[in-house]
Amino acid sequence: MAADTVDLGFAQVDVARQARQGLPEVIYGPGKSADQLADIAAALLAANTGPVLATRVGPEIAEHLPAAHYDPAARLLTWRRAAARQATVCVVSAGTSDAPVAAEAAAVASAIGLAVTTVTDVGVAGIHRLLAHTDALHAADVVIVIAGMEGALASVVGGLVAGPVIAVPTSTGYGAALEGVTALLAMLSSCAAGITVVNIDSGFGAATAAYRLAHTMRRRDDHR
Amino acid sequence: MAADTVDLGFAQVDVARQARQGLPEVIYGPGKSADQLADIAAALLAANTGPVLATRVGPEIAEHLPAAHYDPAARLLTWRRAAARQATVCVVSAGTSDAPVAAEAAAVASAIGLAVTTVTDVGVAGIHRLLAHTDALHAADVVIVIAGMEGALASVVGGLVAGPVIAVPTSTGYGAALEGVTALLAMLSSCAAGITVVNIDSGFGAATAAYRLAHTMRRRDDHR
Amino acid sequence: MAADTVDLGFAQVDVARQARQGLPEVIYGPGKSADQLADIAAALLAANTGPVLATRVGPEIAEHLPAAHYDPAARLLTWRRAAARQATVCVVSAGTSDAPVAAEAAAVASAIGLAVTTVTDVGVAGIHRLLAHTDALHAADVVIVIAGMEGALASVVGGLVAGPVIAVPTSTGYGAALEGVTALLAMLSSCAAGITVVNIDSGFGAATAAYRLAHTMRRRDDHR
Amino acid sequence: MAADTVDLGFAQVDVARQARQGLPEVIYGPGKSADQLADIAAALLAANTGPVLATRVGPEIAEHLPAAHYDPAARLLTWRRAAARQATVCVVSAGTSDAPVAAEAAAVASAIGLAVTTVTDVGVAGIHRLLAHTDALHAADVVIVIAGMEGALASVVGGLVAGPVIAVPTSTGYGAALEGVTALLAMLSSCAAGITVVNIDSGFGAATAAYRLAHTMRRRDDHR
Amino acid sequence: MAADTVDLGFAQVDVARQARQGLPEVIYGPGKSADQLADIAAALLAANTGPVLATRVGPEIAEHLPAAHYDPAARLLTWRRAAARQATVCVVSAGTSDAPVAAEAAAVASAIGLAVTTVTDVGVAGIHRLLAHTDALHAADVVIVIAGMEGALASVVGGLVAGPVIAVPTSTGYGAALEGVTALLAMLSSCAAGITVVNIDSGFGAATAAYRLAHTMRRRDDHR
Amino acid sequence: MAADTVDLGFAQVDVARQARQGLPEVIYGPGKSADQLADIAAALLAANTGPVLATRVGPEIAEHLPAAHYDPAARLLTWRRAAARQATVCVVSAGTSDAPVAAEAAAVASAIGLAVTTVTDVGVAGIHRLLAHTDALHAADVVIVIAGMEGALASVVGGLVAGPVIAVPTSTGYGAALEGVTALLAMLSSCAAGITVVNIDSGFGAATAAYRLAHTMRRRDDHR
Amino acid sequence: MAADTVDLGFAQVDVARQARQGLPEVIYGPGKSADQLADIAAALLAANTGPVLATRVGPEIAEHLPAAHYDPAARLLTWRRAAARQATVCVVSAGTSDAPVAAEAAAVASAIGLAVTTVTDVGVAGIHRLLAHTDALHAADVVIVIAGMEGALASVVGGLVAGPVIAVPTSTGYGAALEGVTALLAMLSSCAAGITVVNIDSGFGAATAAYRLAHTMRRRDDHR
Amino acid sequence: MAADTVDLGFAQVDVARQARQGLPEVIYGPGKSADQLADIAAALLAANTGPVLATRVGPEIAEHLPAAHYDPAARLLTWRRAAARQATVCVVSAGTSDAPVAAEAAAVASAIGLAVTTVTDVGVAGIHRLLAHTDALHAADVVIVIAGMEGALASVVGGLVAGPVIAVPTSTGYGAALEGVTALLAMLSSCAAGITVVNIDSGFGAATAAYRLAHTMRRRDDHR
Lengths: 224, 224, 224, 224, 224, 224, 224, 224
Prior knowledge:
The structure is a homooctamer. By secondary structure, the first copy, chain A, is of the alpha/beta class. Helix content of chain A is 38%, strand content 20%. Chain A has a 5-stranded parallel β-sheet, sandwiched between helices. The longest helix of chain A is centred in the C-terminal third of the chain and has 21 residues, at 203-223. Chain A is globular and about 50 Å long. The relative contact order of chain A is 0.13. Chains in contact: A-B, A-C, A-G, A-H, B-C, B-D, B-G, C-D, C-E, D-E, D-F, E-F, E-H, F-G, F-H, G-H. Chain F binds chain H through residues 20-23, 26, 141-142, 159-166, 184, 188-189, 193-200, 204-205, 207-213, 215-217, 219-221, 224, and chain H through 20-23, 26, 141-142, 159-166, 184, 188-189, 193-200, 204-205, 207-213, 215-217, 219-221, 224.
């Protein structure tokens, strides 16, 4: 057991996750001090060879952690990036208000080794904007669709591409948008078959779901 | 008061509605016996010149009312149709499961004098099906969009046409579709500006909303 | 495609919307900096001839955009107004707390070319206040009804006028008012036939829905 | 204790309620057999002098209880009526679909000694129907307002009369009416001050609330 | 009409409410400036003889209105009190956290002419505290019960007294208390017959409901 | 592993639960055929010495399983009862409609070895009925409180006894009772400290929670 | 357009979906007659070479369609199966009540060409049952986790395997399980990173999501 | 009565609770000033011999109360601790974000006399972390499980131990976690039998529930 967990008192760091799942634990930033983040990162850096990240970190915390690279749009701290993998993800977002979630998805995916392309501001109210990017959608191994309000973009993309589509509802909108719940329910009820969904505003969740697919692809490659 | 209301004991029939609003009251069928429907219809036929209808009537009731025409798909009884108006409505529906609501919208709209065209089974998972009907959408004075599940069709249509779009969420779907609540919330949160929404499964509501638009159009025509 | 979209990096401006729908895209203010608003407005002004607006803009942003007219009650920025159209909208509001939403509806409607009249503070608890304004309601091509709490005003107005009624629930009230959800559900369940509803607090949505009707009316005029 | 409760095994009948509250317990019918109803009624009849009733009883149960009077519209069994009191209640209902709840309110109120008047089918979509009955509303000591869908009738009546208004939301309607929850929330959020609300479809609750008011009135009369 | 409404531009003051309902309109404070409150109060003072109040006013507004008496616990401004009536209300509250709502109920009731007694901090977890006050409960014409969390106090009081019980759910509590919704639902589902309920935290609503009863009682007195 | 699980194809019976937790798995009846129930019971009887039960079994299934004792009120099948333990549970229920849940709690508790007493029909609207049973409540090691509607009984009992109180909300009631959700939320928000709650209508859950306490008590006894 | 859609009057069959997405449209059974199913299937069989299926078909419909193979556990009709692909999916289910959803997932996955393994009845209350199957989980390219009630199995599996995990909440359970909504929310909130979720009870959705992954894998294989 | 309640004007302190339930009332801090806390504590200290605590007290209040010990992590003030009891509770928490709730549970339990052990940061995504602590779980008389997000830890622990498990959902997480409602519903729907649940974030509720169990254990010990 000793090898699996590092006891920091305030946290039991699961340093065996890379061995089990290919990717070290990603640190969830909210509620942790700069010192706590640094201690957990140090444990992960020492015990693994993979990428070490913390999500949802504000600039007032990040400025105390110069050893890590900070991406303010994605609110992501990166102590060590992964080696690049042969898997591509296209991050498609519906509106300018969805940009922070798209930034998190793209930054996390990139830091854990995926190749990332982006298509932005292609909401369905002007469907021609999306159709102009059909090639980019088809070229990717996985498409992450990020949309708030009614979340209709996921269904349209799901009908255009044959590969995996991971939908991320966002809390963009007001009133009946119910802080993302409407987009979440809509994406789960999509008429396009085989779309999967992650939690509201979870660019991180979509990126790690993409990683799981890349894991299977690489394993196949290795077995060939 | 005598002229405004006919007292049938179980109901106070508002026979002045045509004078106030151009259209007699439409009878809401659920919970009413064939005799009650016949009595209310008789009062409306006698006191007005406009169309007399009853919605949501099952065949087991309708068979006792041979004086009225019955449309089983729309579950609509019609004692008297309106004269035709110079206003057209296009009823667009997303899937075959939405057919009953589309039938009600089309049948009510037609019975109250609007010219109706239909576009069926054009859900957004195969967006090309909808785009093939762009001309029909543009030709109408009003477009009624009927969709369940995630209701995304309303947003896409709202982005294609310039005229009024009335969205009707349906209770099609299961689980996260929440019996139409998800489509309702999604349509209200649409990223396409100026879409309006009526109650779940209310083809009747959409048809009468279209009638209101036609009323204004006709008044304007009359004033020219 | 190049003609349809202007790529500003952070946004893909849909400059073809006026051609498709008669009205350029209206900018959604929240989350955008003064510079971003200015850049999008510049793209729209250059590519179109129609009105250019941004909604839900606070005074701390507006003061950096002297080129636009700012209406603080409506929180609306206007770079260019539309030419006046021959269509009138009456904005009716239930209480003094609904004033900001009514102001947005009226200001947007006016800026996009509609003639606007207003009836304020006519909640149904003193029904005589509303009945005193019956003529103003009948005179309009479209009536926008703005109410929070129980939203009953929409049903009463819907029973008085024959033309289109667009209901806007507001987040006025507390407790069981559920930040506008109660008024929204009540308006959707209205016993007055043919009322349509837009999102909570969306004066903008109601104004653009009115514009859609005006579009159809003008097209009819043009075809005569 | 022996005097307060009669132990029937399956039930502990609170026979002291009349002494405490002026009115014996009213039996809640659902789930009870005809024999159980008869046993509880017998205990109440023996230990009290007041009215003995059972609510929400179907005809298939009632036919086995010939000793009680059965009102099928109200689904009410009455073994013994109360002496008449000098208090009047006006039961106002919005539509024909609300009739069963109105029947329960009126029948229970009458059986427990209140004088009842009724105004039916006066929904706010035809406000003149209600205004024609203003005198009946003013004449009553208490007004019970019964409405489903958006429940707007409660607010309008609350603005017309000065005395107590007890609102009963009903499960009439579909979709966004949410089986009475919308009317319930709307009545609780009413802009008319001092309206009180009971549970959905609870004609019984409104009648017993009216009884409580009559109790205070009589006590006051007695003290003069 | 002129006599019924005073047009202040930002508000249409319903000055005829006293004539219709015995009590002038009570001003709802939130969102109004001190000047607006003063103007509405002036209109009401001039056109009526009854009490003039504003609820939910913070001290930062009240300090600019020295002409009115301010009760900081109740957040109530009073320009003119009503003459005392022969009706008593007992305000019972469950816990110390419910004190602000109880203060509003008591202060409004007193200002509109009712005699008020109070019983505080008698939650059902120590039922003996409530039972010690049985006499005070019985002595009142109306009992207002104020409770948050699970709101059980309303049911217990409803089982002890014979007169009217008006329940006010409060937003006291956390988690499953859902900001007062749980207490609201619980009070509406009470097993004690004839309890009525007003909106969450609405001490004002309970006081004006009590006033409605006092109105009927006085009318009866006048008719004797 | 072979010893832990018996593979029946349609089910993997966890026969090691008695060794881990002192009590064999209790079979959940819904959706299982008589044959499936018999097969699972046989596996549990063979591999353990403890009680073997199936809950929520209808009479139409039970009649095919003569080897088990069937309690129709509790809908419980018992193949083998547990030896009696020195732990007592008092099952208190609020109304006659809660009887089926109380029966399940009592029958399961008894079958797994607890001594059971019952107090029935003691809803808080007649608080004296409950207070008459204070001794029975104090005598028990654990009190299970079963109530629907507003669920207030749990708070009152929680304030009377010092030992563990397990609250079971029931789906009794209508409208705002929301099929048990209101009682559930109310019990979780109870002002009486230290009450715990199980799922709606889960007499089984309460009985097994009581068993867990008895387990600890016996272990303590064994260690003395 | 002619090539893309076959117009059957009641349906517009999207026969181009195989060309766009590799898989013909799967027919949604509910609400369709046997004749309608047969007509749609005929259109799909004629225009494509891929598998042709209809989901959620009851035996009373299936018996009229002898040309298709019917799987009653999965409620699936298969007119033509796909050729086998080199991709494996492991369908893991928590309890015996989840069997119908697991059967649909497995049958659809198999019919569209995936190799399927199953692990059944491994709920987390007996965690050893799941841990015994770790090898089967690791061997699959994709794991589908099917669980109702609290849905905890998804989080545990998500922590064990490195590849894609698709979670399917089921409507198993009662009360607080809220017909699958609780499991849905829990899976979306999982502490295991990168789990994706489909609609309640949608074994079909999970199988087609797995197909999308297989599509990317095959494309990658083809490109090597 | 005098002996049971101390009247402080703003509060009626129930000083008889220790006599009734073994433990004096614990003061709920929110909304109370330092002076109010001091006065209530003084009344409790004078009238009882047991522990005197106040929960949810911020440091800005606590600094004015030097007579009490303050635990900032638990936000707990302690004027007097209880004598130690022979009962042990193990507080198990899922993640570092759950630490404040775990601290409250542990601190309150300790202050009221229970022996406390802790197991921290053992979320189910790394199930080996929990399994390493099986001995600590088994050693306790009661286990308190604290988890947010999907709350799966409660089910896994419930399947491992035989004694009482009290689950505390926390508001940790975002989006679909719904501020703790998801964990609450999941714990109530747990597939592990006999788990009980307290309110969201209520470490206090769990500690006092454990105390109730200890009360029964001690009473039993005393009777031997």
